[in-house]
């Protein structure tokens, strides 16, 4: 954990290298003690159809959803939320300076009883070489 999903408006194409942004979010997440590095997943989904605020075609958005296994203290989640939001703002600084943008991030818990997992990547990473 966590799952970090970045949803963004298609009109950001040409303004941002989304692979670089995903890597920046991965690095920020791995740096936080709350997230085990072998469980971090970052993915971006482009929204081709959207309507933003006053309908101006220049309006853009980036919405970041962070889902993680329940059980972490609120203070740790608040710290992680702030750190990830700051990382997103830093990675998007040029975009923020150029285009109208709505940037949001939400962190929420996943109920472990309702979310089975399989991670063979963890096994490979933790195996002695």
Could you explain the architecture of this structure?
- This protein is of the alpha/beta class.
- The protein has one domain (3-126): Macrophage Migration Inhibitory Factor.
- 34% of the residues lie in helices and 26% in strands.
- It is built from 4 helices and 4 strands.
- It has helices at 18-30, 74-91, 93-98, 120-126; strands at residues 3-9, 41-47, 60-69, 101-110.
- It has a 4-stranded mixed sheet with strand order 2-1-3-4, covered by helices on one side.
- Helix 1 links the parallel strand 1 and strand 2 (41-47).
- Helix 1 (18-30) packs antiparallel against helix 2 (74-91).
- 20% of the residues are buried.
Describe the strand arrangement of the main beta sheet, using strand numbers. Answer: 2-1-3-4
State the name of the first-level CATH class.
Alpha Beta
Shape descriptor:
elongated
How would a textbook summarize the main sheet? 4 strands, mixed
CATH 2nd-level architecture: 2-Layer Sandwich
CATH topology annotation? Macrophage Migration Inhibitory Factor
Element order: H for helix, E for strand: EHEEHHEH
What integer value in Å does the Rg equal? 16 Å
Number of helices: 4
> How many structural domains can be distinguished in the coordinates?
1
Portion in strands:
25-35%
Average of per-residue pLDDT values = 94
Helix content: 25-40%
Task: Give the termini distance in whole angstroms.
Answer: 24 Å
CATH superfamily: Macrophage Migration Inhibitory Factor
Overall SS class: alpha/beta
């Amino acid at each position: 954990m966590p799952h970090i999903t970045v949803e963004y408006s298609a009109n950001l194409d040409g303004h941002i290298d989304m692979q670089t942004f995903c890597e920046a979010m991965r690095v920020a997440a791995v740096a936080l003690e709350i997230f085990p590095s072998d469980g971090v997943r970052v993915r971006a989904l482009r929204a081709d159809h959207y309507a933003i605020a006053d309908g101006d075609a220049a309006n853009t958005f980036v919405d970041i959803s962070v889902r993680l296994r329940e059980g972490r203290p609120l203070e740790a989640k608040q710290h992680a939320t702030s750190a990830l939001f700051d990382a997103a703002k830093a990675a998007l600084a040029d975009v923020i300076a150029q285009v109208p943008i709505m940037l949001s991030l939400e962190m929420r818990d996943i109920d472990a009883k309702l979310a089975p997992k399989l991670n063979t990547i963890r096994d490979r990473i933790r195996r002695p070489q």
